[in-house]
Every structure is written in structure tokens, then in C-alpha cells.
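agent> call fold_tool(seq_1)
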Amino acid sequence: MKLITATMILALAAGAASEKRILPFDYEIHDFPNGLRLVTVPTPFPNVVALEIVVQTGSRNEIEPGKSGFAHFFEHMMFRGTREFPPEKFQAVLQQAGASNNASTSDDFTHYYTTFSKPDLETMLRMEADRFQNLDYPLPEFKTEALAVLGEYNKSIANPFQKLNEVMRATAFSKHTYQHTTIGFLKDIQDMPNQFDYSKEFFRRYYRPEYTTILVMGDIQPSQVKGWVEKYWGSWKRGDYKAPVPVEPPQDGPKSAHVDWPSPTLPIFSVAFHGPAFSDTEKDTAALDLILFLGFSENSPLYKKLVLEEQKVDILAGSNPDHIDPYLFSAFARVKKREDMDYVREQLLSTFAGFKDALVSVKKLDEVKRHLRYQFALGLDNSEAVARTLAYYIALRRTPETIEKLYESYARLTPEDLRAVARKYFQESSRTIVTLAPGGSR
């Protein structure tokens, strides 16, 4: 397979930039009567095709008490096969095609992806259509996979950063399903082997065409792809379920929690503020993205001070992940000495406050905008990366055009916008601080 190289992408992105567009490729969108959406992206690179199937169902959709973890569970279960393509046959076809195939789950969506050669496109669309419409698994296989999910939880939660994230979410959220991580609450995962009937209901609700977008990118003819999707996916029945996701009420005061870690580790703490839902038109999302880079990236003054100069911290980072509903803007640090925790925490809080008090210089803001644009283009260094990036934004708005809108929002931001957004969200009443260290909290 010939991959798209970074040089090729940058050349295309440079051409797009001259036209004030960030995407280096054109695309077509087709909506089928059953609600299924097809996005086709022809590229000039021969023989390679990337197939991305995005289901707008993640842990956000797990609205019943005691039933968390099922979106992630189906990322596993979808590889259990159908009557036409049982697991051994499914894998044999992939192996014969030399295809790479995997999946992932997030808070808001589940994502299945395959990369292969052009002649195998129809076969891949047929196999995927079959498992999306005809997934079949008996009770013993269900229980086996549920136990595998429990094993995955136990492995992941042994990481202190994973535990910190779990406690942060459980502390910061009181009603919204973002309260639990993608893998789910432990007690729910332990009970999952008893939820066979509910698993069938979950699949019936959410694995439906109105929640699904197919992205096909590479050496393709859109009209031909459309015909194959119509052939194999056109009879898929639209569903009738919409999850009543609970709305998170405003936080009414600062919160805190401590994780008493049972083994030796460097202390970690995280500071989070409730932020907005993703928007490609409102300034809040874009402004917080720029604040994240300015305040907590490896290029930030705080990183230079705490990590490089004073060497009190060995890991410093921030997070502003895009979410369908309002989520968290956070920063975290791992401190080398426990006695420095108070000092480092005050440095982080001072950085947040600085964006509320002072204006970023126009020169610095323009530099960051250019950097983010270049960084985006540089990340599209192969065909899988391009398709994966498009799929991420498709999960949010079902169209790659949201990327253009977001970068247009970046371009319009002023120093006054950043300050206004910081004042809006970085309020003590919406703040949560979680620490993790052996022994009690400081």
C-alpha cells in the first residue's frame, strides 16, 4: 500500500491554506432514506482505501443506573461475528486482504476502522454491513467477553492517571453520564455477565443507521461506493430511540477529593473547571483550545518554569477534549516531592487566574493560531491518520466541514475573547481538584 506522506499532505494543506481552507481534500456527503450518512473522500494516492464507521453512541448514552460500560462492551462484541461471517471467517478475509482492522470507544461515539487495498472495498462494505445488522452471539460468548472487559478495567485502573481521571469525573459530575469513564463503573462491569438481555436491547437501540456515518477515503469513485453502500446497507431499518441524557446542573461550589494510592508513586493532582459543549460556531471551544496551548503545553511559560527550570514537576499537561455535552477543562501535574504540592497547585491556579486578569498579546495569539494550523496539517502524515481525523469530527457533527468552521473560529479570536471566556469558565464555584498520593491528602 502507498501511504500519504507528510510532505504530500503539507503541500496539499499549503494549497488549501492559500484558499483559507484547512482540509487538503474535497469530499461528498450522501444521506440515505434510513438516516445512514455516507462521506466519500477521493484522494490521488493509488490503491489505498480507509474505511471508517462512526456510531454516535458512547458512554454518554448509558443512561440507566447499573448499566454503564455497554458502549465499550460492544466495541469488543462486534468482533464476535455473525452467521454469515463468524469470527474465524471474518478474520480470514481480513488476513487474505492484508487489511488492518480495529475499533475504539469514547464518551460520545464508537469507531470501527479498516485500511486495505482498493480491490477489497466491496467485500469490506459487505462484511461490515452484515455485522452491523446481524450481530449474533450466544450467552456463553457474552459472558466471556464481559469478563474480558472486567480484566481490562482492572489493568487500566492500576495506572494512577486512570484512577485520577475516574475520581475526577465521579467528583465533578453529579447527574450527567460523563460521571463515569468510558469503561464504566466497577460495580456495573462486575454485574455485566448478568445483563445478557439488556445487551441485546442496547444494540437494538443504538446500532441503527441514523446514528451511523460511513467514511470511505482513498482511491475511490464516489458513485461506485454509493452503489455498494445502497446495496448492502440500504435495507437497514431506522430506529426510534433517543437517549434522555441527563443535564448536569451548575456546580454550586468548589469540590475536592483525594485518592490514597496503595503503592509508592509520585503525587499527582488535577485541577478542572466545567467547560462548554463542543461548538464549531461559538467562540468558547476555540478560545479554550488556545488557552490550553498557551497555558499548559510544552511551549508554555508554566511548563518552562516547573518542568525545565525549577524541576519540581516531571509531567505537566492540560486537556480540553471535544464533547457533545458540556465537559471539563483540566490541567494536571506530577510532582517530584510531596512537599512541593501546595506550591505547584498554586502555580496552576495562578495560571488559570492570569487568563482572567491579563490580555494575551496579539503577536503571541497569532503565533499560536499559525502553530495549531501547521500542527494539524503535520498530523495528517498518512492515509489512516487523515481518515481518523475526519472520523473524529464526523462523530461530533457528521460532517468534515466542522473542521473548517473550527479553524475559522480560531482565526477570528481576539485577546479580549480569550479573557472573556476565561472569566466565564474559570470560576471557583465550578472548580474541582483531585489529588493522588500514598497516604492522606495534604
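agent> call fold_tool(seq_2)
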Amino acid sequence: MARLAVPSADDSGPQAAPAGPDPRETEFYLNRELTWLDFNYRILSIAADTATPLLERVKFLAIVSSNLDEFFMKRIGGLKQQLGAGITDLTVDGRTPRRQIDDCTAVIRRMYRQKRRVYLDLIGELAENGIGILAYDDLSDGDRARLRADYVENIFPLVTPLAMDTAHPFPFISNLSLNILVTLNYPAEPETIMARVKVPVGSGVPRFLGVGEGHCFVPLEEVMAHNLDLLFPGMGVASCELFRVPGPSIAPPPPG
């Protein structure tokens, strides 16, 4: 005959199940911005993979750069708008807008360093396969003369320098444009002025100009920077820098 279980004196009834993890804890959630950057890292890994065809690697590296432009315009721009509005609400993973910007900046800095290494590797491999991306200083005198003549005839009429001084405020910089910032002075005058020159890429103007008989190219901005005497005759060039700004594509709030 089966025996019936007799409760002991210490038995206080059914025991409560042990408490499980709280789904509200921030450690169980991923950040939207950081996971997007992780996705871009995967694209960068394809560009770095030597098993990928060479020109495909170049394309994937360009996609990484394009994606980062969009990230700054949309995601970082949106977070900065939240900062400007004084928003300090936490995301589901426990980050404020300020912390998200700081964390994304740290990841992007690492990504840029890796992207630079991949770019230099690709430039070397392209050269080994007969495709050269050359610096203007590496060209022969004959190639420089031919490039200058081509620049004067086909591109120079599209170039308009904009000076910056007390009478001319800082000019509008169009989104994603490539620009040259030039510091100039007149002979025998110590005072300098600055001018912005937009590189007119697009509308039939290529970023890279062919040189020689093979598959060799020179960036247009280098040709422009080494022929500034056409834009500023009789002036001395103290410095010349290249810059590019991915501007926000988020509509500003209405006035008032």
C-alpha cells in the first residue's frame, strides 16, 4: 500500500519560484546607434577581406564612407537636436543623448583608423594591378602641363573663389561638398585673407583626372591646389587645406 506524504512541522506550504531576470534591466537591450555602427563595421570587413575581388573591395569601402555621411547627417544630427532641446531622457539601454554621441564618437574614431589602413592597402594593390592614384608632385613636368591645360579649358571656368574678410562673411558651405581653404597675402603685405574654393565635382566633372596612357589618375583637388595662381594672380599662398562637411539633412524646427 502506498504511503501518504505527511507534511513536516517545517513545511510552510508551496515555495515561491526563484525570481528571474528583470526584462526592464538596460543590460538586455542594444543601442540603436551603436548597432548601426556595428553593421557598418561588417561592410568595412568585406572591404578589408583579400578574398573579395579588388574593385569590389573599393566599392565596399566607398559604401562605408557614404554610410558614415548619412550617420552624421541623420543620427548624430538628431542627437544634437535633442541636446539643444535639453532632452536628457534615457534610451532603453540606459544612455542619454550626450552619452550616445560620446560612445558613437569613440567607435567612429576607431573605424576611421581602420578605414584609413584599408584605403592605403587598396591603393597599393590597385597600383600592382596597373591602376594608379597619383599625387600631383609625383607627375612629370609634361604630365603637369597637360593637366593644367585640360584644367584651364574644361574646369577652371566653373571655379569661383569666395573671399572671407570683414566685408565678406563666411560663405555657405553646401552639403557634402569638397572645398579648398586658401590663406593668401599680397606681396609686401603681412596681413592675410582667406578664401574658400569649391571643388566642382559633378555635372560632368570627374573627381579623378586621367593622366598618361595607362590607368593613372590624379585627384581634381590636387590639380586645383597646385594651380592656384590662375585664381589668385600676383598673390602669395601661405597655406592650402582641404575640407568637407556632411551637413544635417534634418529640417530645422519652425521659428517661434
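agent> summarizing second result for user.
Residues 97-128 form the longest helix (32 residues). The radius of gyration is 29 Å.
agent> awaiting next instruction.
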